[in-house]
Amino acid sequence: MSSALVVLIPFLAAAFPPLAARLGRSACAGTAAAATLVSLALLLANADALWSAPAVAWRADWLPQVGLSFSFRLDALAVFFALLILAIGVLIIVYARHYLAPADPAGRFYAYLLLFQGSMLGIVAADNVLLMLVFWELTSLSSFLLIGYWNHAAESRRGARMALVVTGGGGFALIAGMLILGEIAGSYQISEILQRGEAIRESPLYLPALILILIGAFTKSAQFPFHFWLPHAMAAPTPVSAYLHSATMVKAGIFLMARLWPALAGTEAWFLIVSLTGLVTMVVAAWIACFRDDLKALLAFSTVSHLGLITMLLGFGTPAAAAVAVLHVLNHATFKAALFMSVGIVDHEAGTRDIRRLGGLLWLMPITGTLALVAAASMAGVPLLNGYISKEMMLEQAAVTSYAGLAWLVPAMATLGALLSAGYSARLVIGAFLGRPHPGDAGHGHDPSPGMWGPVAVLVALVVALGVAPQLLAAPLVEPAARAVTGGEMPPLSLAIWHGVTPALAMSLIALAGGLAFVAVQERLDRLREAFPRPDAKRMFEAALSACVRAADRLIAATHTQVLHHHASVAVLAIAGAAAAWFWIAPHAAGERAPLPASAPAVTAWLVLIVATATLVLRHRDRLFAIVLTSVVGLIVSLTFMQFSAPDLALTQVSVEVVTTILLLLALNLLPKETPAETGAGWRSFDAVVASAVGLGAGGLAYALMTRSVDSISAFHVAQAKPGGGGTNVVNVILVDFRGFDTFGEIIVLGIAALAIYALLDSALRGAAARRLAAMRPGLESADAHPLLLVVATRVLLPLVVTVGAYIFFRGHNLPGGGFIAGLIVAVALIMQYMASGYSWTAARARFDAHLMIGGGVAIAGLTGVASWLFGRPFLTSTFDHVHLPLIGEIELASAVAFDLGVFLTVVGTVLLSLATISRVEERAEPPSPPAEEPRTLPRQSTPAPARPRALVTSEGD
Amino acid sequence: MELLVASGIGVLTAAGVYLVMRRRTFPVVIGLSLLSYAVNLFLFATGRLAIDRPPIVGATANPVDPLPQALVLTAIVISFGMTALIVVLSLRGFLETGSDRVDISASDRDSSLGSPPPEGAS
Fold this sequence. Notes:
- The structure holds two protein chains of two kinds.
- By secondary structure, chain A is mainly α.
- Chain A is built from 41 helices and four strands.
- In chain A, 50% of the residues are buried.
């Protein structure tokens, strides 16, 4: 477990710095540093793998069905990288405390930093491919946040976006590659994949997997031609650059190649692709670095170059070269983090990072200057520093490597890379730290507080120590890690300062001398270089991006016409086309099921339906008439249900019909009463043809279906209704019991619809809609808005209808009825009060709140379901018992009744809320009348029109 | 009987599709109602037609398939919720813009993106 905590602690701790922000920047940094140190301590406690003990592993299943598990394994390679991440993390946290300005939100910074740190630790410690991909994406996201930390600067936002697009796009390829890899290996556990290297390399899918995985690794580690994002990510605060670009983010790609080395390396393809990419990156980036005037950009390209070096070593595919790669990861992290932080200090103190405006800083800030000098010397490969050891060994490996039959290519290019590396290191030192102080503003400046140079000093001490005593200090860490990379087989690592007179020594000397000479001719070379056109990666990237945006805009403009008719036509034609295609393929034999004989009433009803529908289509522009015809259609539909043995459906349909008609009438009162004729005959006949085709298809499909027999699962429901659900009405038992979860979802949807209606109309009482309402005078109204007969009838009927509703509700479990139907019936009775007596009269007397009914209904239904957990049964398991009540007799009480009560309340609440909300808006549109009077005694008055009485709007009590 | 129900479903679908392709909100709402009828009837018909065989245990020896009925019952109620929502949507749209067209006409397209009306006191 504690091995998983190494990764999880930074994530958990990320919440604390923002909370500590009130206590000041030191508190923020303190919490972040404490979390990192705890994680580091746990890591050391679990670092058994460094002492050749078995690696500590921990595993918990997450989604076992897809092979995703929370599994961590701290082998020597993981421990090695995690040590770098955490140790440099602590130094960065301390440094950032002094680097950030008081105005910068420190809480946010440290939270992002911890998120990033946790993601990196996740990548190195994950033992599951899918889990590693999750952390991989998290590093892209958290580094986006870190690079864009100064989000007020456009440069920082653009740099962050570019980094996200490039690394995120690479991550996409990586996902595909890793999935293929997992499929080949037959497991997503990395430790298992690594043992099946042979089978993986022989698979025909090896090459696609390799290329996709390498795209992921190369984008992350800024390898050519994906190197361009890294320099732009330098818009980040320097602590971020130092962290992301020395020890972490860009090393993730390297780590991935090292991690999968036993599975993927050793083939011709691996060697050709990886070593060449590394070699080209090393030389090209070093060349560019030599001509950068911005110190941070110089370091950025030098980082790219060194990453290329490590990639090349991994690409050689020999255990000895892989060991050198691991060593250089360590060395590069130390001297590069130190250099980044030094440049940050220069920027902080001198106010510029431009090499042309700097000079003589060694005399102005002796401590920082000395430290930077030593780190840069290490980068150049000066003996007695750690950079020398790994560079020497790299040259040694390069000297014996032949690429594509060219024995001289790799050694020569590696020497050139080393030469250029020495060149830009020397230029950095000579340009910024030696010479005479610059006369301008940048000429002032002094050493900062020890908080800033302290972390640099720690790193530089390491640079020297590792350079002087490599076998003593570096080997114990590097050797087990290298063994983990190669999967066990490795010649013994011998780290020494003096290897005797070897080709590598000669190459090294050439590089150092050449580097110094290069500085002398740098300016002349630069002028020569300026004369030639160079590709500008940033401009190309921006151009590609805006081309994508323009293409998307054109696509949207072409397809999104904002004309519903177009969209509806396309959708309908697409469906009709797909259906026609299937019809073409399918057999056309007639169904074997004998049809029922048609009866005279049925034919009559059918005729009514056809005539009503046809009239509706022809006369739909008269909207009131359309509503009448629609309800005729609805009635025929409910009669159909009645005829074909569906009493529950008939009851539901007829009640819904009433409610829908009232709803449409209410809405029509505020809408125009006629639809203008605006489409020409051409469009109308097009629509008619399309509609007829679809209708023909739907009817034909229904007929084909009904004339064929079916094997239904319903025998179970019928058989179990009584013994399992305690009711004889199978439809109701299905609703509240067998498929209760569906019903539960449905009442939630209903409730949401009602609340959406409320939200839509409640806000219509303000703003433009309210002004339009106030100006509106409803047209089609009788002189007496609230007829006496209707008022009396609805009030007398109310208790009767509620009783009927209760009856329908209780008998629902055994006979047609139930919560849905009872809810609709009661809602209609209540709605009729609004219709007859007006909104304000009814609302003033309502003893219930429709919102509460909806929420209460859903809650009751949900709690009924939860209650079965108390008895150790799954959600919504029902139970029932018989109770004997005096007078009424034996009745059956099922827990499903409570659930049905929830359904009932939700339906009542939904109908009431939607319709009452419309009536409330309606009332606003009417001429003002004093509220809370008997409305029927008040004939409509239009003469004095005082301001709207507030009571009308607020009488609902909310 | 099957032919009557099937042709009824066909006619309702055709009328629904035709009305949905109109240019004003109200016919679209009516068209969607007709489509709901057609769809509900179609779903119901998947249980096959039967006379005097209600799915009530004990009432008949061979009850009709109850499952489509249960599905259609909730579908009817949900259709009401949907109709209510789009009716109110069209109502609010009309109150807000003064037009009940389903499209944004080319001349309104730019002005509709302008500043919202000032909030009235409530």
